[in-house]
Amino acid sequence: MLLPVSQVASLVNALHLTWLDKVYQNAIPKEDLKNTTCTVMLLQETDSSPAYLANSTFKGLAMGVEIQIFYKVNLADDFNPLEAEIDLMKNLKEASWLIVSSQHHTTDPDTNQVTKTIYVTKNEMI
């Protein structure tokens, strides 16, 4: 079984989202931290705990992933981030990920990028 962040990364990469330039797992490399010309997604694990408890054991894992989107500073005028996020969440839902929380948009104080954070979870049998 792939790590939760790897599962979400594979799904996102398979979607070939035209508005997304890079997907990072666990951390953004130092050389890209100040890059504001690309829209990037950072995936971090939030949960990997036993699930489906029965007969004094567990039969699955509860997996959670935090999805952070950092939009490039100069977005195209015809690009609607909210529509892109809704489409992403629909695709995650179709892949059996539950949308736990979709946080409000914020502005990163260091880069002035609009950011979005989405939390997803999925229980998977082992």
Give structural notes.
With 126 residues, the protein is α+β, with helices and mostly antiparallel strands. The chain has one domain (4-125): Phage tail protein-like (STM4215-like, 2-Layer Sandwich). Helix content is 21%, strand content 41%. The protein is built from two helices and six strands, in the order H-E-E-E-H-E-E-E. Strands 1, 2, 3, 4, 5 and 6 form a six-stranded mixed beta sheet that branches. The N and C termini lie close together (8 Å).
Characterize this entry briefly.
Pfam families: DUF806. With 126 residues, the protein is α+β, with helices and mostly antiparallel strands.
pLDDT < 50 stretches: none
> Considering the protein shown, what is the CATH homologous superfamily?
Phage tail protein-like
Total count of helical runs of at least 4 residues? 2
Q: Share of helix among residues? A: 10-25%
Distance between the termini: 8 Å
In terms of DSSP E residues, the strand content is 35-45%
Number of strands: 6
Mean pLDDT score: 96
Please describe the biggest sheet, giving its number of strands, its sense, and whether it closes into a barrel. 6 strands, mixed
